[in-house]
């Protein structure tokens, strides 16, 4: 028979286990989307490994870090459509990306250096926080702001909403069109009733304008999450296919195109190999639903099924006899590039939009009517359109390169410096488009 002390120890252990149950129920197998890359962007998977070239549409998981070079920009998109944008010479870490047993999501980010723009959608019950220096913001309502962490001070400029900044000096309320600055040495702060414009404010505005213009309000009918649906709305359209129901197909998809022509088998230490699409819309259709080949129409995406965090094996139905189902590498850890498709490319100040590019190389939000543009390209084979963006030259992707993209242009503003070619640039058919006036 157990002694009294043993019984007390057993009871204490049971209480400890019960107290830990909510924490044990939290899931850390959660990903968010690296939705935009421009210039030099690197990622560390948080396993102690070195930084490597980032790939657009790469899943970001807990522990990941993103770093931009002096010409790099990136956007991270969360399930509810919230975004975090990183400008050149910045580093951000994702210490926690988890899912509570209640369904609420916990997103904890830390700015290590540089400037980030945060646009929080205000989803109820979700925990969304950003740390910088000695300060922290836990978002409670929809907000849009800029955080800058320098060597001597940090600032928070609020464009929309109201946020509370927790600091060693206390909690500071910062309203719309206000800026708070912190001295990193003595924790003193100053609150100003204005917002000074910074060089990348207009780029952030342009991306917000794209999201707002093409937001898919009815995404719940075909996707369990909001992220990635804006790009689906811009780069393609839904139609009713007899026997299959509602299907989605990208514009500029010729009959010989297939959805696995451009991308990479990217290795993640926690998941192994997974397919990462190079197409600007290539997120939702590769984590959810099925790709179906429709005779006379070509490949189209059918929503439905179970959302998969790391899409190791693409799902295809009714594939032609000549189609080879993509297979992940059986061994190794090196990212393998697949580049079989055709990208739209710039010639002078015009973008040559090709009818079998499926949007690869078409800058984000640059054309008002993609359906009309696609129809012209299908009729003529290719259409030359004026576009305010210029691409960065990309190396050929005929051979596999670790962390390399598939192919396509990497647009940047004409006024911006062109990124230096490294031979392993990351894929990004995205570009910042024309946007609204400055704030």
Main beta-sheet strand count, sense and barrel state: 17 strands, mixed
What structural category do the secondary elements indicate? Answer: mainly beta
Question: Would you identify the regions where 5 or more consecutive residues have pLDDT less than 50?
Answer: 13-24, 390-438
Strand content range: 35-45%
Give the number of domains: 2
Radius of gyration: 23 Å
Query: Tally the helices: what do you get?
Result: 4
- Strand tally, please? 30
Shape: globular
Helix content: 10-25%
Q: End-to-end distance, in Å?
A: 75 Å
Mean pLDDT: 84
Structure write-up:
The chain is mainly β. Helix content is 12%, strand content 37%. It has a 17-stranded mixed beta sheet that branches. Strands 21-20-25 form a 3-stranded antiparallel beta sheet, with no helix packed on it. A 3-stranded mixed beta sheet has the order 23-22-24, with no helix packed on it. The relative contact order is 0.13.
